[in-house]
Structures are given as structure tokens and as C-alpha cells.
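Assemble and predict.
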Amino acid sequence: MRVVLPKFKSLSKNKDVLKIEAPEYIYIPLIVGSDTDITILVKKEEYVFKGMVLGKTKGHFRIPIHSSVSGIVKDFVEKTYHDGTKVKCIKIENDFEERTQEPVLSRKDMSKLTKKEFISLLQEKGIVGMGGSGFPTYVKYDNDNINTLIVNAVECEPYITADNAIIHQKAQEILDTIDTIMEINNINEAFIAIKKNNQELKDVFDNFLGTFLKIKIILVPDIYPMGWERYLVKYIKHTTYKKLPIEKGIVVNNVSTIYAIYEALKKDKPLIERLITITGDIKNPVNINVKTGTTLEYILTKLQIEKKFIIAGGPMMGVNVPDLVVSPNLNCVIILDNYKETLSKTCLRCGKCVSACPTKLSPVLIKENLDDKEKIKELKANKCIECGLCSYICPAKINLREYVRKAKQIEKE
Amino acid sequence: MNAIKGPFFRSKNSTNKMMIHLLVALTPIILFSFYKYGIKPFYHSKTNFLGLIYPLIFILLSAATTFITETLYEVIVNKKRNEELRYVIYNHYSFFPGLFLALILPINTPLLILIMGGIFAILIGKMAFGGFGNNIFNPALIGYIFISTCYASVLSSSYLSAYEIDTLSSATPLSNAVEALNYTTLVKPYGSLFDFFIGNIPGSIGEVSSLLILVAFGYLAFNKVIKWRITITYLFTFFIMTTLISSLANLGMWYPFYHLFSGGLLFGSVFMATDPVTSPTTPIGQTLYGFFLGILTIIARFLTPYPEGVMTSILTMNMFVFILDGIGSKGRFNFFRAFIFFVIAWGLILELSIHIGSGLRTSPSDATDNKYNIISKETIADQTTYIATYEGYQSKLKAKIVIEANKVTTYEILEQNDSFYHMTSDVNYIDKLLKSNDLANVDTVSGATYTSNALKKLLLLTKEDYQKDNGKIIENNDNILDSPEIKNYELISEQIENNNYVYHVSSKGFSSNIVLKIVISANQIIGYEVLEQNDSYFNVIIANNYLDTLAINQNDIETVDVISGATYTSNALKNIFKGILGYHKEKYE
């Protein structure tokens, strides 16, 4: 079953990107994706430059976390991450000098970089997936058999227009970067996936596309969750993979990530800023450019928005949070006047959740067999991508995703 | 602050909306039944105002029964009050089983039996399993099965509307399916296949109009209310199999359509098989469910003595829903795990079609019935002894029939191994055959159609054979008819008006005394009028035009069958007719 969601995108679409002044205090979250195992490289009262490495993940990937301002490390405090969990943050007092350690250089020809330089640059600048996963981008390119690059500009969740805004602003730069990436990695073809009903984005790209013969714009159907990697790969390349698309020589990048790569290659700039959509039941929904570590409270005060019911992320996969700090993989904040949880009714066994599930799970059966670990294993609950479609489609308003999540936990134990 | 779990976006669809769609889809079907069983007979002056609105009363009463039963159960047993009770009333849609039950029953089902069916449907079909959402079997079908097993004969004689009584003779088109296989017998009596399609045939209240059911299916599938895969695969399987059967038996294309449009197939496949609670949730499960429903229905219609089969097939498959869902949920990840079941289903579809189709090919017409076989025939003086066999349901029935002085004196079954034979002996079917004047038109025993048909054919064909040899017509066995005379009527008054004799006679009916005015002229009853009665089942008598039947057959009252479901009342009427005629003849002859 193909599910088309209502959009709510026109609220913040086609509006100029707002840039708000940096706050007095910045709280850099010590987390990459969901990895909180970080080596901290700074001390209290130490002066940090803008773009300086504050910590690195301990694991295999060694992703650095950068300061988005220059100033003095004041404290280590706990703040809410956009998945609702508490995370340790470095509190920096902003001196509003924007001082960097070394003078900012601008690379004239990005494509002169070797593949090795390219990869280490991505790693050094802390480029991670900005669509939501926060997966380190350099890992995707650390492979010699890449043949296809898919740029994900689908943005299939309602409300979010961050990718849309960056395309309107930086179409030329994005195409340049794609071309560079292709040259460096020896990739033959690239696709930019755009939703069918976002024809105007295609027009934006078409203005510049003339010189980039290897880049194609692909219009994908307006269904949810079309932005899911597997769907895109299946739709564009007619192929499937086991764990990662690189198995088939495919790299999928979010369009915002591509722009972050541009800034890293061209300006040597680490990932310390991003575009987010602030929308919902508010007077002036906007897309704003903010530094990582900015608190939502500060943004809302600046925009003169009353703090009500806050959703970090899209309405489908997002999380209700009391407050949060901006991290590289947050793309949207929705503020609703008041939200009441829908009361769930008796399951009718209509099977809509089964037909809707993009990973071919049977949520109703998982819910019915929640006390049987063997059954849950057979039903492969761990395949769930938590897109929330089962909960969305349920006529009895049962929050099936939560049952499947529970099943995933039971399976892990 | 406790975070609320997303998604924060829910579809506009709701259980309530789905149920409203379902009601909308059912409305034309209910209105059609109102037209067919209420307006039409009323228009032709076959019924009174009560008869006009009777179909609506019938349906509403059934819906009310299940609704009240479930609500009372929640109050008394589950001790639900206030808010909780309100939730149950608004969200458990307990009137639906009753609605469906009414629509799959014949119009003349006695209301008391209807109510009992409704109560049974809720208590056993739904609440015993834990209520809405937990039941394994379709509650309406549980109610139907209850009624059809406990009151089988009531159902089989209740199909005709007051209007149809005059024009049609048999119960439903399907009940003929066993006996003959030609267009003239199966379709002609009801008009054409077009009459089948629009619903101009006898049948259950909601099942007859194929057209309206298909429209409802379109509406429900478009709005994604029902599991359309089940309906499609069910009907597809059924149609493929009947087409194969008919082409193997050289019957022509009318035959699959005749089967498709008769009985409860369309209604069952659209409304009963797709009941969300009792059908598979996975697409593969639903597809297999449809295949096996089709196969089971074919088996029931062609290989068992019950010509209907849809409702029992659905109940049977209800039991396998969780297995099909297991196959379906794994088959989604790897289709090959479900593949074997598709192979089995298609194997069965082909095998059964060929088996049944080639079996039907040899099916004879009445004239040369090669199921009938005379093993021996001995004539000593005027006594001829036949040993003959006839193909029954599962076995050959072997009988000894002795005809002496042009009368059948012995009819004895020597060998048989039919599972349903006892049903014929329970109703003394052989006696009935021996007493009958019109052997060919004696009704078969419902539930043992094949066996009773075999018994009938044995006697009929043996008599024919005897006539061929002797050229004489066998008279009825009057000696068997003679039974001790008991005065079971009461003569209230008698007078002579315009050379006619007018009697007021009464007899004890089921729940009241029935008083009839009978007019006799030249030893014949020429008129009657019901003066007084208060019997609960008198409407069945009227619906069946029983009084007319009695008047027409006044010289052979004993051969007129009682109406099942109104046995007392019909016996009382028989007694009046027979008694007063005897009285009159004795007095004036």
C-alpha cells in the first residue's frame, strides 16, 4: 500500500533563510549519531577557537566534534538531545570574536584533492549524515568500487523544508560538489532524488545543470517513506542490498550533507552550522541557519515564539522533547499549540499496518505475540526502521511502532 | 514532563469511519430486500401493512438483539458501568453481527428463532472468546450455523416471499443443483441469468442481488474498508473451478455464472469472508485464504449433500487464520516459504475441477438414468420382485421392491452405506414415498439430498419399469394411508346458504384455537375463511399459501406435507379440512 501523507510544507517553504545572531552560551553536545563515548580534549576555563576539536569518538571511526564559536569553556552540563535523551554538553561562553586557529583558506579547485585527502578531510571536519542518522560520511567513501552517487533531496516527512531551502540557496554549489565528488572517487553517475510534487526544485537545478552531464534529476513518487535509503536505491537502481548500499557500489548522501562537504572542501570549514526548519502552529514558520550547540530556548526567544509542545524532527519519526540543543543531524523543530495523545481502541485486525509497512513486517502480529520471544524473532521485529507508518495508518489509533520497539528490545535481551 | 510518544501525525481514517462505510454499502442491499420482500408483495396485494415493513422489522430486530445481548453481557458479566460501558457501546459495533445474521437468513425465519440465533451469535461467537477483536469465528456465522443445524427444516422452507409463492415452486435455485444439470431445470424456472444477477430469485434476504453486492464491493474496496484480496481470490478460484467443471461436463458458460450468482457466495465473499477480526492480516495469508475458501465451497457444493457451502467454508477457514498469518508474515520476507502453499492450492484447484467435471459428464437426464440398475426381476403370478440399485451419496443403495396386484407392497433397503441415510429414516421418508400420489415431486430431505433422491428414484424408476412390462398404472397404496379416525376438530355450526353448506369448524392450533368457515358444494370445498386464530406461526401458513394448497388437494389431504416450523398449525388446518369433508360426505352421500 502506498501512503501519501499531508504535507504542511508550504508553511515554511520558499521563505528566505533567516540567520540569527549567535547566543552568549553554546552547549556543544558530546554525541555523534547515537555514540556518546567521547574523549574530551578540552578543560574548564580553556580558551577555544571556532572550529577547534573539542572531543573525538572513541570507537573505530574517530569522529571529531568542533566548537561552533570562539570563547571559554565554562562547564560540562546535561542538555536534551533531539532523541529525548540527556547528553553531556560543553558549555562555552561566546566571545563573539569568531576567531579561528588558522586563517581560513579557500581552496580554488576542489577537484585537485586526491581520494585520500578527500576522505581524511571529511573525517577531520566531522561530516556526518545530516538527514537524521548522523552516520560518519567519510566511511561511505572509504571504498574503491563506488559507481553511483544518490543525493537524497526527497525530504519525505511532512513540515520539513530544510533541504528544500538549501537547494534554493545553494543549487550551484551542490552541483559543483557532486561533480567534484564524482571526479575524486571516479563515480560514473549521480542522481538527485526529488519528489514528484516538488517540480520547482527540479527547475532550480535545471538552471545550472547544463554543464553537469553526468548528474541526473530523478523524480520519485510522493509516498512515505520515500527518503528511506533502501526505497531510493530500489527505485533508482532497481537493486537491493543486505546492510549498506556500498555493497552494490552505491553511496547515498543527504543534500544538506553534500553542502557540508562543499564547505569542508572549499573553505576547510567543519560541520558547525546547519539549516533547520522551525514550524508548526506558529505565526512565522522559518528556515534558519544556526550554530550547533544553540539551545532551542534561545532560538524561540529570538523568534518570539511561545514554547509549547515541541517535536524534534518530523512529525512521523520525531520525538517530543521539553527542550534541546542543536546538533548536526537535527533538521526540524515543530511547535504545536497543544497536542493530545489519541486514545487507542480495540484492534480490528484490518491488516492495514501490515500492508503499509515498508520493511514488510507484520506489526499487528508482533503486537499480538509480544510475550513470545521466539515468535518475535521469526517476525523479524529488528528490521523495523521506526518510520511510524503503522501507527499513522491504524484506524484504531494504536501506536504500533511502540509495540514493535518493545519487541526489538525483547529480541536484543 | 513525560514525553508523549510519536508519531504525532495520524491518518484521518478511523474504525468508526470504516463501519460507516460498511453501513453505506449495506444500505442498498437492505433497501432491495425491503422492495423484494415488502413492497412487491404489498403492491400485488399479497400482504398487509405489517407484511410491507416486515423485512425492515426482521433486520432491525436482529441487529437490536445482538446489540442488547452484548450490552447486557458487558453490564452483567463484565460489570462495566458509565464511561467503560459507553466506550463498549460506541466502539464495539455489536449490532453488526445481528445485521449480517438477518441478511443471510430467509425472510420467513420465525422471529423467535432469529432472536435465539442472535443471542447465540454474541454469547458463543463473540463473548466466549473475549469479546470484540478476540473472536476466532465470525459471530454472525456462528448464529447462522446454530439456526441451520437446530432448525434446518425451518430454513429450507422459508425462502419464498409472499409474491413468489405463486410463481415459484422450489426453495432456492441451488437446492435443485443436485438433481439436474441443465439450463431448463436450473435457470429457466427463475427466468434468466439476468434475474439471478439483479436478484429476482428466491434466497436469503441480503444474498440475492448479485448486482448490488458487487456495487457494494466496489465501494468498499475503493475506500479500503475490506480486505479486497480475499474477495477477489475467493471468487476467482470459484469461477475458475466452475468454468473448468462446466467445460469438462459440456455444460456451457451459463453454468459458472449460475453458480456465481446463486446462494450466498457473493454476499459471503464480500461481507463475511472479509470480516476483519476473523480473517488473515497479511496479504499472502489473505490470498491463500481466498484460494482455500473457493476450494472448500466447491467441495461443499459438489461433493457433499449440502448445496450451499459458503458459510461453512468461511467458518472452517476461520480456524486456520493464525496459520495463514504465520505463513503470510514469513512469506513476506521470503516468498518461497509460502510458495509451497500456493502450489498445494493450485494443485487442489485443478485436481478437484477435473475430478468433479469428469464425474458430472456422465450425468444423465431422467429418461436414461444409468445410476439406476435392475439386478434381478422375478415375476410369480401377479407378484413381481425387483432387486435394484441406485447411486446414492457415498454408496450404492440396494433395495427390494415387491409389486403385487399393481401395488407396491414392500420397499426395503437391503444395502447402503450413506452417512446421511439415517436422516431419511428419521423422517420415515420411505413411507412418505409410498403414500405419495405424485412421486416425482416429493421433496427431498434437506441435509440428505443425494440419499433421499436415490430412494425416490429407486421407487420411481422401478414403477416405470413395471408399467413398461404390464402397461398398467400402479395405484396408490391406500391400505397404508388408512389410519384410525380420531375426531380432532370441532363442528361449531352448520347451515345451508344458497344451496351451499356452510360450516364453522375449529381445531386446536399451536397457541390458540383456529376457527374456519368452510363452504361445501357438491361434495367439494369451494370456499374458506379464517374467522379466528392467534397462532404465532400463522404468518408462515399465509406465506406458504398453505390454505390454498389444502383446498386444492382436499381429496388427498394426507399427502399434503405439514409446513416445517408451523407443524401444529398446519396439522390443525389439515384436520379441519379433512374432518369436515368427511363429515359432510358421510351425512349427505
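Chain B touches chain A at residues 1, 3-11, 13-15, 17-18, 91-92, 132-133, 224, 227, 276-283, 286, 325, 328-330, 332-333 (CB under 8 Å).
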